């Protein structure tokens, strides 16, 4: 007896007959779907460099006047130097600088940070991302401790790289001459090298204070920002989501300012002009903090806090938002 060949199923007949039971077929995965495109570690780092440089440039150009005022306030001691204006607060400093030195004096010392911002932000963000796995401590996802320790590490490494630029910047910002009469960035750098060299008395003066300032700042900044951002639900509306990130970034920068400003005051005193020519009064981070506390009181350790918060509160929001949006744009553009 020969076997009857199998006939193909008439699906139209099945659909037309209500009495015929339906056959359920599980949906098959799309066999030709392309896997999601992975970005190599080198390309990711390059995109972070570009996004970080953009964030740093924008933040510096907008916030430099407040950085200059902050440095002037921190360099000012209780004793008034002959022939020098004494600043009675942030707005008084703005007014006197404008009258005596001109509008462009608020951008004194801007070239060193502009030159340094691309590698500085690159170091900051790349080191932060690369060191996060080291501080997971077995957790399945990054914790607030992970973000804080990665931020601390990134800040310390960043400080070592940018300290020579900071020394030149502070020297320029401390100069009270009119903008037309002020020495150029290159001449200031050359004078420091010729006089004091590249060591801890020259271009690397105050490096430990810079490490303390940047390390503590980034520990609080990244730790708070990423922990809170991941905890607070995101908005589907783009405008609301933008302002959510702005608020978290502003709060992160403000809190970090309150915590790290004693290191910032010590850094300005160490890197700035000494009260008495030829005598190094401020040397060493904690020693300088101690001198300021004993001679000028606890409040002196928070000199320049208002302009610092005015700069790094919104500046912190600007930097993180520009970085995130620039990085997202670059990923879509070049990935």
TrEMBL record:
Question: Catalytic activity, per the record?
Answer: 2-oxoheptanedioate(in) + 2-oxoglutarate(out) = 2-oxoheptanedioate(out) + 2-oxoglutarate(in); 2-oxoadipate(in) + 2-oxoglutarate(out) = 2-oxoadipate(out) + 2-oxoglutarate(in); heptanedioate(in) + 2-oxoglutarate(out) = heptanedioate(out) + 2-oxoglutarate(in); hexanedioate(in) + 2-oxoglutarate(out) = hexanedioate(out) + 2-oxoglutarate(in)
Q: Does the keyword Calcium apply?
A: no
Q: What is this protein called?
A: Mitochondrial 2-oxodicarboxylate carrier
According to the UniProt record, one GO cellular component term is: mitochondrial inner membrane
Q: Where are the Solcar repeats?
A: 43-134, 142-231, 240-329
Q: Where in the cell is it found?
A: Mitochondrion inner membrane
Q: Which family does it belong to?
A: Belongs to the mitochondrial carrier (TC 2.A.29) family.
Q: Which Gene3D superfamilies match?
A: Mitochondrial carrier domain
Major site of localization recorded for this protein: mitochondrion
Q: Which InterPro entries match?
A: MCP_dom_sf, MCP_transmembrane, Mito_2-oxodicarb_carrier
Topology relative to the membrane: Multi-pass membrane protein
The keyword Nuclease is annotated on this UniProt entry: no
Source organism, top-level taxon: Eukaryota
Q: Name one Pfam family in it.
A: Mito_carr
What keywords are annotated for this sequence in UniProt? Answer: Membrane, Mitochondrion, Mitochondrion inner membrane, Repeat, Transmembrane, Transmembrane helix, Transport
Per the entry, what this protein does is:
Transports dicarboxylates across the inner membranes of mitochondria by a counter-exchange mechanism. Can transport 2-oxoadipate (2-oxohexanedioate), 2-oxoglutarate, adipate (hexanedioate), glutarate, and to a lesser extent, pimelate (heptanedioate), 2-oxopimelate (2-oxoheptanedioate), 2-aminoadipate (2-aminohexanedioate), oxaloacetate, and citrate.
